[in-house]
Write a structure and sequence with these properties.
This protein is of the alpha/beta class. It has ten helices and 15 strands. The strands form two sheets. A nine-stranded mixed beta sheet has the order 14-13-12-11-7-10-9-8-15. A six-stranded parallel beta sheet has the order 3-2-1-4-5-6, sandwiched between helices. The protein is globular.
């Protein structure tokens, strides 16, 4: 499956490395407005450094676009690709606004091209294991969950990067990494109906929040919390799912453990380490061939974005905000 990479920041290399591990896709060309970036990427991955995005769109050998452009360029670049008949793998979030997200989704639908949005965290083996046990009824009624996704960015932030500017990454840490674990919470517990949020800027420079705390109401009545931070001492992830009959506790250092009703102590669960990024890219390739459907469609990615937009509005206005309100 021949693809081209556009928007050549550090994440484009992560995806390109995954493509090399897979062997089921091939990067044949790349483009960035920066000549030095596209030359370096082309040399590293053995592809053509295209002189323009338009030349990639005219190249009939290119079947798909791996799009890691800045969020506010997603609409223009994805619609251009769709009009040229190119399928698109678009890194999350789908866009910065619900209007853009809907336009991207509808544009790809009308053009008859595959749109797959990159949300690799839900594919991690420990979360697949928990989801399977929930589906099998082993957790009983889900009642509560708590998540934390924290990283250390002190001294590591480039304030010239779009990733750390409020205009291009609204909500700061919430949209940048918090969205990964709101997605996992929805994947495991169910759709989120309403959000109470607080955002803060405590440690890092710039104009964007580096800490976020959300209280979430799920459609099935369960409650959950999410904390996200760029200002903590180290990288750490936590996801605890509480059901009437069982509890799953995952963290980056200790792995996955399970508690069951009337059974003393934790049971450790050994999950095969998988390659979530390879899996989502191979799913994209299979979808182009008509052999699969993207797990994260435009519609699902728009709903995921709506949770974050509800959180941003809640923090701004100091009130509970429903997801339906921001989807209007």
């Amino acid at each position: 499956m021949k693809v081209a990479s556009i928007g050549l920041g550090w994440w484009s290399d992560v995806l390109a490395d995954a493509i090399k591990r897979s062997g089921k896709l091939e990067i044949v060309s790349c483009f960035s407005r920066s000549e030095s970036k596209r030359t370096a990427f082309a040399r590293k991955y053995g592809c053509l450094a295209a002189s323009s995005f338009e030349s990639i769109l005219k190249d009939k050998s290119v079947q798909g676009i791996i799009n890691t452009t800045p969020n506010n360029a997603h609409l223009e670049t994805t619609l251009a690709a769709a009009r040229a008949g190119k399928h698109v793998f678009l890194d999350k979030p789908i866009a910065n606004t619900i209007a853009d997200a809907r336009a991207i989704t509808e544009g790809c639908r009308k053009a008859g091209v595959v749109l797959s949005v990159g949300y690799q965290r839900r594919r991690e083996s420990q979360f697949r294991w928990v989801r399977a046990k929930i589906d099998a009824g082993e957790f009983g009624k889900l009642v509560n969950a708590e998540a934390n996704i924290s990283r250390d960015r002190a001294g590591k932030i480039d304030l010239s990067s779009w990733r750390y500017q409020a205009a291009e990454m609204p909500g700061g840490v919430l949209l940048q990494i918090g969205i990964h674990y709101t997605d996992v919470l929805e994947y495991l517990v169910g759709p989120i109906a309403a959000v109470n949020a607080r955002l803060a800027q405590l440690v890092l420079p710039g104009d964007n929040p580096d800490v976020a705390s959300l209280a979430l109401e799920h459609e099935n009545g369960a409650l959950s919390t999410l904390n996200a931070s760029y200002a903590s001492a180290s990288e750490h992830y936590v996801m605890n799912i509480y059901g009437k009959e069982a509890t799953a506790c995952y963290d980056l250092q200790e792995g996955l453990r399970v508690l069951k009703r009337n059974v003393p102590g934790f049971t450790r669960v050994s999950c095969r380490k998988n390659d979530p990024i390879v899996e989502e890219l191979e799913e994209f390739a299979a979808a182009i061939q008509g052999k699969a459907h993207p797990e994260m469609t435009g519609e699902r990615a728009t709903a995921s974005l709506a949770v974050i937009r509800a959180g941003i509005l809640s923090a701004k206005e100091g009130r509970r905000v429903t997801v339906a309100e921001v989807m209007k």
